[in-house]
Write a structure and sequence with these properties.
The complex is a heterodimer of chains A (about 850) and B (about 450).
Chain A lengths: L3 E2 L1 E6 L12 E4 L7 E5 L4 E5 L5 E2 L2 E2 L8 E6 L6 E5 L9 E5 L3 E10 L8 E11 L4 E7 L9 E6 L3 E6 L2 E8 L8 E4 L4 E5 L5 E5 H10 L11 E2 L3 E3 L5 E8 L5 E7 L2 E6 L4 E6 L4 E9 L2 E8 L3 E6 L2 E7 L6 E7 L2 E8 L5 E5 L19 H27 L6 E7 L4 E2 L13 E11 L3 E9 L4 E4 L2 E7 L3 E9 L9 E10 L4 E9 L6 E4 L7 E7 L6 H4 L1 H4 L10 E6 L7 E6 L4 E6 L2 H18 L8 E2 L6 H44 L9 H45 L7 H8 L12 H14 L6 H5 L12 H24 L2 H41 L8 E2 L2
Parallel strand pairs in A: 1-29, 16-20
Antiparallel strand pairs in A: 2-32, 3-4, 4-5, 5-8, 6-7, 9-10, 10-11, 11-12, 13-14, 14-15, 15-16, 17-18, 18-19, 19-21, 22-23, 23-24, 24-25, 26-27, 27-28, 28-29, 30-31, 31-32, 33-35, 34-35, 35-39, 36-38, 36-40, 37-39, 40-41, 42-44, 43-46, 43-47, 44-45, 45-46
Helix pairs in contact in A: 5-7, 6-7, 6-11, 9-11
Chain B lengths: L2 H10 L3 H14 L4 H15 L57 E2 L10 H5 L10 H13 L13 H5 L2 H15 L2 H14 L5 H13 L3 H14 L3 H13 L3 H14 L4 H13 L3 H14 L4 H13 L3 H13 L5 H13 L3 H14 L3 H18 L2 H14 L4 H13 L3 H14 L4 H12 L1
Helix pairs in contact in B: 1-2, 2-3, 3-7, 7-8, 8-9, 9-10, 10-11, 11-12, 11-13, 12-13, 13-14, 14-15, 15-16, 16-17, 17-18, 17-19, 18-19, 19-20, 20-21, 21-22, 22-23
Classes of the chains: A alpha+beta (about 850), B mainly alpha (about 450).
Chain lengths: ~850, ~450
């Protein structure tokens, strides 16, 4: 990540397979005024470079010249570290120290002048050698003990022994106490101490004096194999691995130690006090530091090939490097002061400066060809056409008749069999089932097909769904339908829904229904004479005797249906008897029963059977003229409402209890988590109690649910009965669907909305629109939202009103002129349409403004303002 | 050359695999060589090491989380509620990420779940530990590469013995924590080592806090960090404390920690950015940008700060300034679909139309993630709208939706365009599906309300 890259002025590649490490290069002027670059590889090759950059007509001549390598020498053993200092006694000249694994040697470089420039010879002369008993790791050079003009060497071995060599003579050795892996070692002149990074990840400082004492107290004085271990003077808890150490003298005569850790760059002063930390968000490789005025400058190289220049903690510059170095130094070359010398571990050596040469990132070119506009236009037109056709196709496909894909036929096996499925019925002997057969004939391939059978609640269908994939051949599905509970049956209609996805991927569905045999749920019984509910059905043809009408029931016991009165009752004997009376040649049926619920099914069946019987007769009609059985319906609604209320209160109770349970649990968890255990203070009992209470509530809830489902079925029965009767009342075509949809026979109670809420809303709507008595009613606001019904009496009133007005309207209409009827009914659609039409004009401008608003606040809504962090 | 020196040198030169091989050679000969053992451990740790301060940890607290301070925090004291802010430049006008936080200029772990990350794949129904998926993954990946079984068998390992050796315990802990992902043993070691050094080494306290944090014992971690910071002022401790408070949903305490840290380490970039992020999450954009600016002054190549400042200008209707910041990021070598997308948007709004399309083209070329693609096409639809080509805009939005079917904003804009073309019912159904995707999107609700009331 940088804007600039470094400018290379001089570079040298080492051809052989050599490896270098961070101690393999030093930059030193030796005894001249500009710096030499000295490298020593692990293969034992020493090279001394003197990069001379000539200035020719004001332009710096860059590049490596063969004469820049002034000396190359091969040693038998690897070179681990190089150093320069006044290491020869009696000489003020700088000498070169080379560390091999088992010895340290001091050399002096002499120059033998030649006639020409390339005739100059540089010679390396061995001054003295110390051999080491232990494998060495690194060394440091300095005026130990405050000696002037004399430099000593301190070698650290791989196992933590420090050996001090006072020029030609060995002084002493000692051990570092806490040691495992050797860390970098530096000498701080001001405090006359060594600073190293210990294996316990502390920065440790050892005073030279302390080492001296320890070294000279040891019994085997003089031998390099032993020595007393020393404890550090001060520790700094750095607590991370250290890559490099540097010591700097500031202009204020203060010494600072710079530490490059694996994650941070630290600066501590000479007695171990932290000056600053710079957290690095990359992983550093090596660094070099120098002072500028009073500031500490650090040049850090990161693993991402970047060189970063920090002034204290502030980043001053960053530039890209051409390769990854292992070592970086700052050198004053001939004609170029303060340039960077970097060395990679394969031996690439380079001198460079920062400069402002931009590191231009060139994005790879896009592989887009020049557009041929005409071709592109035709292609675009074609693609547009495909897109448009696709939309049209979808519309076309969705309007295809379903029969085109497949046909479905339903048969009910009239023979009943004894039920072999498990059911909740108490009396088992008359438990029977009937077989429903579904024939599916696909006309092509169907991707998926699902067939679902829907029956009213106490009836049950096993299995209730079929699912097929990749269907091509004809199919026969069989399922059994039987009574599952002791209850009345709202309807014997069985609806079959087939949902499928055609091979073009269009989802469609198909619905069919079939009437189930009556003897599945109804049996004969003796008729009763006097009953509460009487329903008269008038025909415009002669009544058909019951024996003919119910011929399928007749087979079992032909005797009972011979008279004019016939009794029917549920096979489970849970309902009341329904008696069907027919007066001979009176064109009238009379149904008598003690409950509307029981008579429901007979009304449905008689109507269905009569229509079937007279299906060839177009003028045939059935009429119901009596008053609708309101009271039983209302009482059913009432009981449903009350049951629902109880159910809701039970649920609330359960919610409260379980939240209480959770609270206690949470409290217990908190108690158990604390370090010091405290008594539970009977919270266990509280938990158990709440649990028991929850269980009993759940039991009551499930009881209530069972009761509720029974009540629901009863309500469905009475609704169906009333609906069937209304259908026979000759209502006009517009009102009938409204009424029909209001008194839907399916009763659903969902969370937060009861069946009553929906019904009440619908009723109010009817009362204020179609069934409005006066103009004033019509002016009242339409009821559009569902409110919870609190007062059942109001709902009852509404039901009564609607049903009364329905029957009344019928009587008025039959008497009045047709015109009025037309007026009344055509009013509502007009009223609905007018506002829609008029507002369309205004519509577009408003949404436009809404869009503009949305696009302003939203164009930035482009969620994409993220940049990967690099 | 000494083999051990070679191994050391290889370790320093980051050739960890070679270093491990070297150490194995030494250990084959001398199985009890502690130094080689330690070095091998270090190399194995370094090979898989990831700075765990920046790993993704964002997870929603569950019901039994006893660390929650307030269930209904006051406005401005929590990171979790996204109420409209009261500052002059509220972020609420900005798009938000799926988690409800305002989008930042940078995808950074912990604040945003990256699309397609394994955390997302885990789903919401399953409770997951605070251990980030990265640590789980690392353990298994490292195991694969070791052919002859694990390096250290921890089943019969005497932790107490190693806890007392200061030179071995620290590398061992890091090995356990980063390489093995074995929190239980790591914590055991940390506790015993802390006792051995008589609680005088702040590092062990921080490591203990790290363990507690992974085990979701946040309050204990806080305790440890507070005692560590008393021993040594260190940037890392301040950042970890700040993270702890963010986890506890106490942004104000986190800010105070950062302020205290900045007093000791003035102008520390990490702390400055930490503060900027906190202010950003608190919907205080002006303060956030102030800190990002200070960070940039200190560290001029901080991409996160530059991108965030760029985005601040973009949403303050200064696309030209934003363009300059993004170009800077580009010049620094970032090369991603998101960057080109942002450049394209800036060009579009600063009327440099000639560059807009080529920027988007590049963005499309680079985008591999379908979600990013969807965003680019969504932005392209704005270019089409700006050019007045509604058909093209509809096409762009359709392509965007085909890449990301859950893009609520695209659905909303598509609906608006369809409404403009007179297809009211279609528009309404698009609005409704946008609403189901993102329930509290202001635009959708306003548009739907308008359609309702007309």
């Amino acid at each position: 990540m940088s804007l600039f890259k470094t400018k290379e002025v001089w570079s040298h590649n080492c051809e052989d397979e050599e490896s270098f490490d961070q101690n393999s290069m030093i930059v030193s002027p030796l005894n001249s005024e500009a710096d030499f670059i000295i490298t020593g590889s692990h293969s034992g090759i020493l090279r001394i470079f003197k990069p001379v950059l000539d200035i020719n007509e004001g332009v710096l001549q860059t590049g490596y010249k063969p004469t820049d390598l002034i000396l190359e020498k091969s040693f038998d053993s690897p070179i681990l570290q190089l150093g320069v200092g006044k290491l020869v006694s009696g000489s003020m000249l700088n000498h070169l120290a080379i560390l091999h694994p088992k010895q340290v040697s001091i050399y002096s470089m002499t120059v033998k002048e030649g006639a020409t420039k390339h005739g100059i010879q540089y010679l390396l002369k061995l001054m003295y050698t110390h051999s080491l008993k232990r494998s060495s790791a690194n060394f440091t050079i300095g005026h130990f003990g405050g000696t002037l003009n004399r430099d000593f060497i301190c070698v650290q071995s791989l196992d933590g022994m420090l050996s001090i060599f006072e020029q030609e003579s060995f002084a002493f050795s000692c051990f570092i106490s806490v040691f495992l892996l050797p860390g970098p070692l530096v000498y701080v002149r001001k405090t006359d101490s060594f600073v190293t990074s210990g294996s316990n990840w502390y920065i440790q400082c050892f005073k030279y004096k302390k080492l001296y004492d320890a070294g000279h107290q040891s019994p085997e004085k003089g031998s390099s194999s032993a020595g007393k271990s020393v404890i550090s003077d001060w520790d700094f808890q750095l607590n991370e691995g250290v890559i490099e150490l540097n010591v700097l003298e500031l202009s204020t005569k203060e010494y600072v130690i710079l530490i490059l850790g694996e994650k941070n760059l630290y600066c501590i002063n000479d007695w171990g006090k932290l000056k600053f930390i710079k957290r690095l968000d990359y992983s550093p490789l090596c660094f070099t530091s120098f002072t500028l005025d009073t500031n500490v400058m650090n040049i850090v190289v990161s693993e991402t090939n970047t060189v970063l220049v920090y002034q204290n903690t502030t980043l001053k510059w960053s530039a890209k490097l051409h390769f990854l170095p292992i070592n970086i130094k700052r050198a004053n070359l001939w004609n170029l002061k303060g340039c960077l010398v970097i060395l990679s571990d394969e031996g690439r050596l380079e001198c460079c400066y920062l400069g402002t040469q931009p590191s231009l990132f060139v994005a790879p070119p896009l592989s887009y060809q020049e557009l041929d506009f005409e071709k592109a236009e035709t292609e675009l037109a074609m693609l547009n056409k495909i897109a448009k056709d696709l939309n049209n196709d979808e519309l076309k496909l969705s309007s295809d008749p379903t029969e085109k894909y497949f046909s479905m036929n339903l048969f009910v096996d009239p023979e009943l069999k004894t039920c072999n499925h498990e059911s909740n019925i108490s009396i088992a002997y008359n438990n029977q089932m009937c077989k429903l057969i579904i024939d599916v004939k696909p006309h092509g391939r169907l991707e998926e097909l699902q067939i679902t059978m829907l029956v009213s609640k106490p009836l049950k269908c096993v299995p209730d769904t079929f699912f097929y994939t990749d269907l091509k051949e004809n199919l026969k599905c069989e399922c059994d339908i039987f009574l599952n509970e002791d209850n009345e049956v709202p309807s014997l209609k069985c609806e079959v829904v087939a949902t499928f996805i055609s091979d073009t991927g269009v989802p469609r569905n198909l619905r069919k229904w079939v009437m189930l045999p009556l003897n599945l749920v109804i049996k004969f019984c003796p008729p009763q004479k006097d009953n509460e509910i009487k329903i008269n059905l008038n025909l415009n043809r002669d009544a058909v005797p019951a024996a003919v009408l119910f011929s399928d029931l007749m087979q079992d016991n032909p005797l009972e249906a011979t008279g004019n009165a016939t009794g029917f009752t549920n096979v489970t004997e849970c309902g009341k008897t329904v008696s069907v009376l027919l007066a001979k040649s009176s064109q009238r049926y009379r149904l008598q029963s003690d409950s509307l619920i029981s008579s429901n099914l007979m009304v449905e069946q008689i109507v269905f059977r009569l229509r079937k019987h007279f299906q060839d007769d177009d003028d045939f009609s059935i009429n119901f003229s009596g008053s609708l059985p309101l009271a039983p319906l209302v009482s059913c609604v009432n009981s449903h409402f009350n049951a629902r209320k109880e159910l809701v209160s039970l649920q609330d109770n359960l919610a409260q209890l379980s939240s209480q349970y959770r609270l206690i649990e949470k409290r217990l968890v908190a108690k158990l988590k604390t370090k010091t255990p405290s008594p539970l203070t009977n919270q266990g009992i509280l938990l158990d109690d709440t649990f028991l209470e929850i269980m009993s509530t759940v039991d009551r809830l499930s009881e209530k649910n069972a009761e509720m489902s029974k009540i629901r079925v009863e309500l469905e029965c009475s609704l169906n009965a009333v609906l069937n009767l209304i259908k026979l009342m000759d209502l006009d075509n517009k009102l009938l669907p409204l009424i029909e949809s209001t008194f839907q026979q399916f009763v659903y109670d969902v969370d937060g909305q009861n069946w009553e809420d929906v019904l009440d809303c619908n009723l109010q709507y009817l009362l204020r629109t179609t069934l409005a008595k006066s103009e004033k009613d019509k002016l009242r606001a339409e009821c559009t939202n569902f409110e919870e019904v609190k007062d059942i009496s109001k709902l009852e009133k509404h039901i009564t009103q609607v049903l009364e007005r329905t029957s009344k309207k019928l009587s008025i209409e039959s008497m009045d002129l047709i015109e009025e009827k037309g007026q009344g009914s055509s009013f509502s659609p007009e009223k609905g349409e007018q506002p829609i039409g008029s507002s369309l004009g205004k519509a577009s401008s408003r949404v436009l403004s809404a869009r503009i608003k949305s696009s302003i606040s939203q164009v930035p809504e482009s969620r994409d303002e993220k940049n990967e962090q690099v | 050359m000494d083999k051990f020196y070679e191994a050391l040198s290889l370790f320093r030169r980051r050739k960890y695999d070679l270093c491990i091989d070297k150490c194995t050679e030494i250990l084959d000969k001398q199985p009890l060589d502690q130094a080689a053992w330690c070095l091998k451990m270090r190399a194995m740790t370094q090979r898989v090491y990831v700075d765990d301060i920046e790993t993704e940890d964002a997870f929603e607290s569950d019901f039994f989380d006893t660390n929650i301070v307030a269930t209904a925090p006051r406005p401005g004291t929590s990171l979790k509620i996204n109420t409209a802010s009261t500052s002059e430049n509220p972020f609420s006008a900005r798009p938000r990420a799926l988690t409800g936080r305002p989008l930042t200029g940078v995808v950074r772990p912990g604040t945003q779940k990256r699309p397609g990350s394994s955390l997302e794949a885990l789903g919401t129904a399953r409770p997951f530990t605070s251990q980030s998926s990265r640590t789980i993954r690392l353990g298994t990946a490292a195991m694969l590469s070791q052919k002859d079984g694990p390096f250290i068998q921890f089943s019969n390992f005497n932790i107490n013995k190693y806890a007392g050796k200061p030179c071995l315990s620290k590398p061992l802990f890091e090995y356990l924590f980063y390489h093995e992902g074995d929190m239980r043993n790591a914590m055991e070691l940390a506790i015993q080592a802390n006792q051995h050094c008589e609680s005088k080494d702040w590092w062990w306290k921080v490591q203990l806090a790290k363990c507690y944090d992974t085990l979701n014992l946040i309050r204990k971690a806080e305790e440890q960090l507070h005692s560590a910071v008393k021993l040594q002022h260190h940037v890392e401790i301040f950042i970890r404390l700040n993270r702890i408070y963010s986890k506890l949903d106490q942004p104000l305490s986190a800010l105070n920690i950062c302020k205290a840290g900045l007093e000791i380490f003035p102008n520390d970039v990490t702390l400055l950015i930490e503060m900027a992020r906190l202010y950003e999450n608190l919907d205080n954009s002006s303060m956030s940008v102030k800190f990002y600016r200070s960070a940039v002054i200190e560290d001029a190549i901080n991409t996160e700060s530059i991108a965030c400042i760029g985005m601040y200008h973009f949403y303050n209707n200064q696309p030209e300034l934003a363009l300059r910041y993004y170009r800077r990021v580009l010049a620094m070598g970032a090369h991603s679909a998101e960057l080109y997308n942002n450049l394209g948007l800036c060009c579009l709004f600063s009327q440099q139309l000639d560059l807009t399309l080529s920027c988007f083209q590049r963005a499309l070329d680079l985008a591999s993630d379908p979600l990013i693609k969807a965003e680019v096409w969504y932005n392209l639809s704005h270019t089409a709208i700006a050019a007045g080509d509604l058909e093209l805009a509809v096409l762009c939005l359709n392509i965007s939706l085909s890449a990301d079917t859950n893009h609520a904003s695209a659905l909303n804009n598509l609906a608006v365009l369809h409404h403009k073309m007179g297809r009211t019912n279609l528009a309404r159904s698009y609005f409704l599906s946008a609403k189901t995707l993102e329930n509290d999107m202001i635009e959708v609700n306003a548009n739907l309300e308008y359609l309702q009331n007309k």
